[in-house]
Amino acid sequence: MISYGKQYIDDEDISAVISVLQSDFLTQGPSISHFEEGLCSFTGATFCTAVSNGTAALHLAGIALGWKKGDIILSTPITFLSSVNAIVFSGATPDFVDIHPENYNIDVEKLRIKIESYRNHNQHIKAVVAVDYAGHPCDWKALYELSKEFDFQLVADACHSLGASYNNDTSYAARFADITTLSFHPVKHITTGEGGAILTNNEELHKKVQLLRTHGMTKDADMLIQNDGPWYYEMIDLGYNYRLTDFQAALGSSQLKKLPSFIQKRKDLAKRYTDAFFHLHGQLLTESGDTTQSLLQLPIEQSSIQSAFHLYPILVNFEKLPITKIEFFQHMLSNGIRLQVHYIPVHLQPYYKNNFGFIKGDFPIAERFYELEFSLPLYPSLQIAEQDSVINTLNKLLSI
Ligand SMILES: Cc1ncc(COP(=O)(O)O)c(C=O)c1O
Q1: Ligand 1 atom with least separation from CA of 184
Q2: CA 182 – ligand 1 centroid, Å
Q3: So what's the pLDDT on residue 165?
Q4: CATH topology of domain 2-258
Q5: CATH number, domain 260-398
Q6: Mean pLDDT, residues 358-362 taken together
Q7: What is this structure's pTM?
Q8: What are 340's strand-pairing partners?
Q9: How far, in Å, is the centroid of ligand 1 from the Cα of 80?
Q10: Ligand 1 atom closest to residue 185's alpha carbon, by position in its atom list
């Protein structure tokens, strides 16, 4: 079965893990800071904190930024649940802004309108969690300028976009956002099994996140109120155990060495999909709801942007096909190809409808996107013959 995503683990990765398993430290040892330094040098961020998963990274981001009950925090409906759940964890109120019909990220023009409408009711936006969906960066400069104009915090959920570039800059996320979060789940660009990281260029935020990762406790002599001796620690904030283990960090460092080649492989495979289907491409997602006669909308990179291609999302014009989305999915599955859908709009999840009153129709572009979207298989170990079988099966399905 060819699935939409998969890890790549080689002998070097396995040896790296084994050597930590045979060492003195399984957790809280030297592999963590080595991995964090590697992530800083790859992303250009000044500070990094490795944590147990991407959701923990988002949770700590919210606490470090001081989110609390009554704060209004905006995000996109087309993301994994965690981007929005992190808002709720802190007691703040989540709201959404619809996606851009071409890059599927938070629509910056609509964000401005939303902020202005809140302002007209004397309400201030505390933060925006923007997600580089599928690996395609948001318009970060525009987001940054808006954050300065309206005084809100910016979190970059970069769980899809490790290695992407914006205006030829791969270190854009930590430069524009207060905090950037990563995930190392097996389908992501690199994996540590479960794992995540928090990047920032802000030392104060970094120190807070470091404390929060380990129960809010410190042994740092400069931070202690008293010091009873070498065993002594103080808890100065309410934190969590969100640590990554050392053997996971060793896997992460070993994977990082291969990251440039992983990204290149993803880009090459994405180009092969685009070349294969470009003749069917047109804009299906529009503000007016009118669609072209085209069969597909492909993920086209916008100017000055290089996607890291975590996903290859296609939109399918089912009005032009004699089959439904479910039949399309089943047909691919019966040919050994398991597609995936990214994502069910978060505002339509029962939890968000029941607790925050969102209803169908609130974010029409995201909802239409969900009706049309499938993610094609895309991962570094996908063989050309396997990709060809995906392309051929799809081509047959699109020509019925
Ligand atoms: C955009 C996005 N944010 C956050 C997460 C959460 O990451 P994790 O699964 O490591 O908790 C994911 C993972 O799927 C994701 O895709």
Answers
A1: 10
A2: 8
A3: 96
A4: Aspartate Aminotransferase; domain 2 (3.40.640)
A5: 3.90.1150.10
A6: 98
A7: 0.97
A8: 375
A9: 6
A10: 10
